[in-house]
């Protein structure tokens, strides 16, 4: 299906008013482009490790909206112009130029699949469920993953760093807590490596579905991988569900700012001598993460590994 795209160029100070006006006349799902830097509060809330390089903010914004083939374009554009006329009486709209274009629907959920191919992490083959096993890798330990709408194909360096740490720390009696489990790739890999059971937490409800489907794809019983939606940092129910002094290994492949907060929480869930494996740490945040571990009297860093720009820090509960 093709959509008509209209882009309005205005001042950044008028964006909120124009957005409200669009809503009033029935235009929904707008897209806003500007070069206003994110505030410290915004970046902290979004857990962003690398901020994009933005051009200088010149006070100009572009607000786009989309109309389908059945829409009365002429009538809607008339209402837009009338709304802009009214707003111009008490705010600076700037250029106030509307440009028209066209765009097509895309299957955003599945379009990325063309880029996810089988790959190996040492003796482990990670394969999307829709691909066949390459002949040269038939002797490798197979992990099949379909992320669905949950994050985590395993191809990223941070996931590979975690997998290599799991290989060192997992045996047949290991209980694993996978924080931010996503598709369940780390927990499922741990089970394939011989772990006894896995508990996973994730903020995204889609992770529940993804984990279930990937367990089935790997012929793993659901009673070996338990998963819940919620935040173990501040949700008492999730903390209690996970349990205390319980795990041999906790793994978290998230972002540095989240890991720093987890450093204070995870010791309560680890057995004495258990390992906390972390990654998702961009190299510029390495020292901040290591400083957080240093402040924690219950954890001692035992290994730091690197791949590309990414860092994995593994600590042991004293």
TrEMBL record:
GO terms for cellular component: cytoplasm; ribosome. It holds the Pfam family PrmA. One of its GO terms (biological process) is methylation. One of its GO terms (molecular function) is protein-lysine N-methyltransferase activity. It catalyses: L-lysyl-[protein] + 3 S-adenosyl-L-methionine = N(6),N(6),N(6)-trimethyl-L-lysyl-[protein] + 3 S-adenosyl-L-homocysteine + 3 H(+). InterPro entries: Ribosomal_L11_MeTrfase_PrmA, Ribosomal_PrmA_MeTrfase, SAM-dependent_MTases_sf. Transmembrane segments: none annotated. CDD domains: AdoMet_MTases. Its EC number is 2.1.1.-. It comes from the Bacteria. The keyword Plastid does not apply. SUPFAM superfamilies: S-adenosyl-L-methionine-dependent methyltransferases (SSF53335). Keywords: Cytoplasm, Methyltransferase, Ribonucleoprotein, Ribosomal protein, S-adenosyl-L-methionine, Transferase. The keyword Transcription regulation does not apply. Its main location: cytoplasm. It is found in: Cytoplasm. Methylates ribosomal protein L11. Belongs to the methyltransferase superfamily. PrmA family. This is Ribosomal protein L11 methyltransferase. It comes from [Clostridium] citroniae WAL-19142. The gene is prmA.
């Amino acid at each position: 299906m093709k959509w008509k795209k209209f882009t309005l160029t205005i001042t950044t100070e008028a964006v909120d008013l124009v957005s409200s006006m669009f809503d009033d006349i029935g235009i929904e799902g707008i897209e806003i482009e500007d070069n206003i830097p994110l505030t410290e509060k915004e970046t902290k809330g979004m857990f962003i490790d690398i901020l994009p390089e933005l051009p200088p903010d010149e006070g100009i914004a572009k607000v786009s909206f989309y109309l389908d083939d059945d829409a009365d374009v002429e009538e809607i554009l008339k209402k837009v112009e009338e709304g802009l006329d009214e707003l111009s009486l008490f705010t600076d709209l700037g250029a106030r130029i509307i440009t028209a274009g066209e765009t097509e629907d895309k299957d955003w959920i599945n379009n990325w699949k063309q880029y996810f191919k089988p790959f190996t992490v040492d003796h482990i083959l990670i394969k999307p469920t829709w691909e066949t096993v390459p002949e040269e890798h038939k002797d490798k330990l197979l992990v099949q993953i379909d992320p669905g709408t949950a994050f985590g194909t395993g191809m990223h360096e941070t996931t590979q760093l975690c997998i290599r740490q799991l290989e060192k720390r997992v045996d047949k009696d290991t209980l694993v807590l996978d924080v931010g489990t996503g598709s369940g790739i780390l927990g499922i890999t741990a089970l394939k490596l011989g772990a006894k059971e896995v508990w996973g937490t994730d903020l995204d409800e889609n992770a529940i579905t993804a984990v279930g489907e990937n367990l089935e794809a790997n012929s793993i019983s659901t009673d070996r991988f338990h998963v819940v939606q919620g935040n173990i940092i501040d949700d008492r129910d999730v903390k209690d569900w996970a349990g205390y002094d319980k795990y041999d290994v906790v793994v978290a492949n998230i972002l540095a700012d989240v890991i720093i907060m987890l450093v204070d929480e995870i010791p309560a869930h680890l057995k004495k001598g258990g390992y906390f494996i972390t990654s998702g740490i961009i190299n510029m945040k390495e020292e901040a993460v290591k400083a957080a571990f240093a402040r924690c009297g219950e954890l001692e860093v035992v290994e730091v590994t690197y791949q590309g720009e990414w860092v994995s820090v593994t600590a042991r509960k004293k």
